[in-house]
Each structure stands twice: as C-alpha cells, then as structure tokens.
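quick q for whoever's on today - can somebody do inverse folding on this one?? i tried earlier but teh output was garbage lol. tokens:
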C-alpha cells in the first residue's frame, strides 16, 4: 500500500491520472450526445449541450466552461486543490465537448474510441500544464496541490450546514424542521451534518410542499 501511495503522489503520475479522468469525462459527453445519458456534470450543463445540439449555437457551454477550465487549472497548484468539478467535469466535459461540436469536429464526440483517446490526450496536457505551473512557482510558494485532487466545494461544504438550515427554514417551515431533524440524525451517526440537512429538508419539503 505504501508503494502504491508513493507512486500515486509522484509528479510524473499526475498527468496519467488526469488523462484517465478526462478520458472518462469526455466519453461521458459522447454518451450524452449519442444516447441522451451518461453526462458527468450537473443538469444545467447538460441542458446547455442539449440546447446547443438543437439550435447549433454552443456559445453558452463553451463560454461558460472555458473560464472554469482556465481558472481551475491555474488555481490547482496555487491553492492546494484541483477542483475536478470545475476544471475537468465542467471545463472538459461541457466546454471542450461543446467546442468540438461547434467547430466541425463533432466526429470526435460521435465516436466512442476517439472520445476516449482525445479525452486522455486532453487530460495529459492539462496534467502537464498543472505540473509546469507548480514547478514554475517561486521557492516556498507551492502548495503541493497536485498531490490531492478533490472537489473544493465538497471540502468546504461540510461547514455550511447551519446556513443551509437557515435557508431551508426561510423556504418553508417543514423544510426547516426536516433540515434540523436531518442534522440531528447525522450528528448522532457521526456523519457530516450537511448531508442530513439537505436530505431532511428535501424530504419534508416534498411531503409538505409550498402551496402557491
């Protein structure tokens, strides 16, 4: 196990890992375009791609996702975290898939094999850029961000339970009660309370919906 951990934490291994991730994510774009499911992202991004397919205008997914990709790739070595959701799932899965479809390279997305190969190549390039940025940083400033890949939102979200409870209570009384009960149950189970807050709020808001 120690040898495996040492291998995975090497800089040379990082582009390979991002290559594997991007191969899967880009191929998820192929699955969505071809079959209507399999997209590795949120519903809003999937709808952007769907609208682009229907109208031929992919400006929304490309413009929206490009900023995420550039910002997160540069941010990774600086803050210590590569946000997979923003950089790869949004930037690659939405932005670069949309860019291929918009620029007459739709055959890449249409082919399962090509999606795997191109996605892997994109991931290798992104991983290489991140390692390059890390090495180019001044002495003492590197945060070793490429050692750990995680969703920044997921890491910080664990502290947002009380704020979500307040938001749920503002939405409706049942949602607020559900959020409190969910938080109490998850706290008793020694789990992150934010999960219980969200589940409890959704359940009671669904059972007792707001009547307009």
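ok took a stab at it. sequence:
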């Amino acid at each position: 196990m120690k040898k495996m951990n040492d291998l995975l934490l090497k800089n040379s291994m990082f582009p390979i890992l991002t290559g594997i991730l991007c191969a899967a994510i880009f191929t998820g774009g192929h699955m969505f375009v071809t079959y209507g499911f399999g997209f590795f992202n949120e519903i809003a991004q999937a709808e952007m791609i769907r609208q682009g397919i229907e109208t031929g205008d992919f400006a929304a997914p490309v413009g929206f996702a490009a900023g995420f990709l550039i910002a997160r790739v540069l941010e990774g070595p600086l803050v210590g975290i590569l946000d997979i959701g923003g950089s790869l799932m949004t930037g690659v899965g939405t932005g670069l898939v949309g860019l291929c479809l918009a620029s007459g390279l739709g055959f890449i997305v249409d082919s399962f094999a090509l999606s795997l190969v191109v996605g892997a190549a994109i991931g290798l390039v992104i991983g290489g850029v991140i390692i390059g940025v890390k090495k180019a940083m001044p002495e003492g400033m590197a945060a070793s961000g490429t050692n750990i890949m995680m969703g920044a939102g997921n890491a910080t979200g664990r502290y947002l339970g009380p704020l979500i409870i307040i938001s749920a209570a503002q939405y409706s009384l049942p949602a607020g009660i559900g959020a409190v009960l969910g938080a109490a149950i998850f706290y008793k189970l020694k789990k992150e309370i934010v999960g219980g807050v969200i589940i409890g709020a959704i359940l009671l808001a669904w059972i007792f919906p707001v009547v307009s």
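fwiw Residues 144-150 have pLDDT under 50 and may be disordered. also The chain has eleven helices and no strands. so keep that in mind when u check it
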